[in-house]
């Protein structure tokens, strides 16, 4: 039974890595976080990113983690609950004599009997986690029957919670110089935490059992605990990889007409363009007259620096213009998502913008890294991009549209996006070859964006030119090998 903590301010020396809360952190791969108050060069960055990736610790907002704030008891209970898979917990009365009458309990007094602690109400955001933690002996609360969910958690309390979840395994006494300061109820936990190298103490050999823990320090402990006992690793968990369909197009079947538009003689195809506000006002009647049968229209984008989601100022005009002139339309979103949650946010916003437009071509996740020094996405790894692509595509597919991913040969070959995990969805290739020669891209593509300097009547300036080989009316998820007819 934990005692009510006496708050102790962290000394300046404890705000650095010298506290040695856990093992030395060596990033397994590049990673990103959306938190603007977590510097990528600081010692706890990897741990915070890990906790965000696995949804073990929430930030104060999507942009703020508050690394120097104090970790609370509820925060750790929530992390352990999520590691356990968020299992359902029955909210039974504590008094077993009342079980038969529980279903009939309607008064507030009777309802309170189903709560784990007197200070954790039905509206508490961590109720399920705290209820699970108590039911499984991870927490027992204070002697007065409260839990103190918002109380800063002390180092010995952290050790106790982790120890409880691991079955209170015995360990030899830890060689801390301040062992006498450890509470009796936490002694075994502290010994165990030291033995499994989760909490190593300070450089001078002390444990500081009653000191509070910052959120950044807590993230380090949670990460190493998750790695040691749950096998989690830095990076997002992706579905099983599949063989990537190869490029079977025939080079000699491609040809250019006098306008620089690509044709393909070995299989049916359609021609199209992709447009955004960069093209400004478009005369869609003239565009349709050139034989362009589809348009991929940018709906919006996320700022590479601010992270704000913005609608393309010409989206509605382009959608109405293309549709009014008999063209089929698809849409794309220029993503700068750093987490699947951000990708879901982008997809939901895109669906709102699509509204009732009859979109028959794909809805595309277009993630492109920005090399600017102030870009939030600079250096993002392929695991993250692929996880975001999957999250986006799932939302789009659930809404009844055809999801698609987009990329260049360099992006695919360098691992900037992992096509082996995206084979359930079609692919839009961006590859501007010299003199529009056939692409040597190794893998199958459904649409090829072959030029960024095309000229189309009705559009002032350059526009991207595309050729499509897929009949979208017959497309089905994961059907890459079925609907690809191959050369004829």
Topology:
Blueprint: H1 45-53, H2 73-83, H3 108-112, H4 127-135, H5 155-165, H6 187-195, H7 215-230, E1 254-256, E2 262-264, E3 270-275, H8 284-289, E4 294-302, E5 309-311, H9 315-324, E6 328-335, H10 340-354, E7 363-367, H11 382-398, E8 403-407, H12 409-413, E9 427-430, E10 447-454, E11 463-468, H13 480-483
Helix pairs in contact: 1-7, 2-4, 2-5, 2-7, 5-6, 10-11
Structure explained in plain terms:
This protein is an alpha/beta fold and 488 residues long. It is built from 13 helices and 11 strands. The protein has helices at 45-53, 73-83, 108-112, 127-135, 155-165, 187-195, 215-230, 284-289, 315-324, 340-354, 382-398, 409-413, 480-483; strands spanning 254-256, 262-264, 270-275, 294-302, 309-311, 328-335, 363-367, 403-407, 427-430, 447-454, 463-468. The strands form 2 sheets. An 8-stranded mixed beta barrel has the order 3-4-6-7-8-9-10-11. It has a two-stranded antiparallel sheet with strand order 1-2. Strand 7 (363-367), helix 11 and strand 8 form a beta-alpha-beta unit. The protein is elongated.
- Strand proportion, as a percent range, falls in 5-15%
Structural class, from secondary structure content? Answer: alpha/beta
Compute the number of strand runs.
Answer: 11
Give the uncertain stretches in residue-range form: 6-28, 93-111, 480-488
CATH T-level fold name of the largest domain: TIM Barrel
Distance between the termini: 75 Å
Number of helices: 13
Mean pLDDT: 89
| Corresponding CATH superfamily of the largest domain | Glycosidases
**At the first level of CATH, what is the class of the largest domain?**
Alpha Beta
- CATH arch. level architecture of the largest domain: Alpha-Beta Barrel
Q: Indicate the radius of gyration in whole angstroms.
A: 28 Å
Order of helices and strands: HHHHHHHEEEHEEHEHEHEHEEEH
């Amino acid at each position: 039974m934990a005692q009510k903590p006496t708050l102790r301010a962290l000394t300046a020396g404890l705000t650095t890595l010298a506290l040695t809360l856990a093992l030395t952190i060596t990033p397994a791969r590049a990673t990103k976080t959306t938190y603007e108050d977590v510097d990528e060069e600081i010692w706890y960055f990897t741990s915070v990113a890990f906790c965000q990736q696995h949804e073990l610790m929430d930030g104060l907002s999507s942009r703020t983690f508050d690394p120097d704030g104090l970790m609370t008891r509820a925060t750790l209970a929530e992390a352990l609950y999520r590691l356990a898979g968020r299992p359902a917990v029955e909210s039974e009365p504590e008094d077993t004599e009342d079980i038969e009458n529980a279903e009939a309990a309607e008064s507030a007094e009777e309802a309170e009997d189903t709560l784990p602690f007197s200070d954790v109400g039905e509206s508490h955001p961590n109720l399920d986690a705290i209820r699970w933690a108590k039911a499984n002996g991870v927490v027992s609360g204070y002697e007065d029957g409260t839990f103190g969910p918002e109380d800063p958690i002390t180092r010995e309390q952290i050790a106790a919670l982790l120890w409880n979840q691991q079955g209170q395994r015995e360990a030899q006494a830890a060689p801390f110089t301040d062992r006498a300061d450890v509470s009796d109820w936490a002694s075994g936990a502290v010994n165990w935490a030291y033995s499994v190298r989760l909490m190593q103490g300070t450089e001078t050999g002390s444990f500081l059992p009653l000191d509070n823990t910052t959120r950044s320090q807590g993230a380090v402990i949670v990460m190493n605990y998750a790695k040691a006992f749950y096998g989690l690793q830095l990076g997002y968990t992706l579905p099983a990889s599949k063989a990537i369909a190869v490029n079977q197009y025939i080079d000699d079947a491609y040809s250019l007409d006098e306008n620089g538009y690509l044709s393909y003689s070995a299989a049916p195809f359609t021609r199209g363009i992709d447009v955004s506000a960069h093209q400004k006002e478009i005369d869609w009647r003239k565009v349709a007259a050139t034989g362009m049968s589809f348009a991929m229209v940018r709906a919006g984008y996320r700022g590479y620096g601010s992270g704000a989601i913005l609608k393309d100022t010409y989206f509605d005009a382009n959608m109405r213009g293309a549709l009014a002139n008999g063209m089929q339309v698809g849409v794309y979103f220029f993503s700068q998502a750093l987490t699947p949650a951000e990708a879901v946010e982008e997809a939901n916003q895109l669906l709102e913008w699509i509204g009732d437009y009859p979109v028959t071509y794909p809805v595309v996740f277009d993630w492109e890294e920005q090399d600017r020094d102030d870009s939030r996405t600079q250096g993002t790894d392929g695991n993250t991009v692929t996880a975001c692509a999957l999250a986006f595509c799932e939302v789009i597919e659930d809404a009844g549209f055809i999801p698609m991913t987009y990329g260049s040969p360099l992006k695919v070959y360098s691992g900037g996006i992992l096509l082996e995990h995206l084979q359930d969805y079609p692919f839009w290739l961006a590859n501007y070859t010299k003199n529009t020669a056939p692409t040597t891209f190794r893998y199958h593509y459904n649409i090829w964006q072959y030029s960024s300097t095309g000229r189309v009547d009705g559009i002032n300036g350059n526009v991207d030119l595309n050729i499509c080989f897929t009949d979208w009316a017959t497309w089905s998820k994961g059907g890459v090998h079925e609907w690809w007819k191959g050369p004829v």
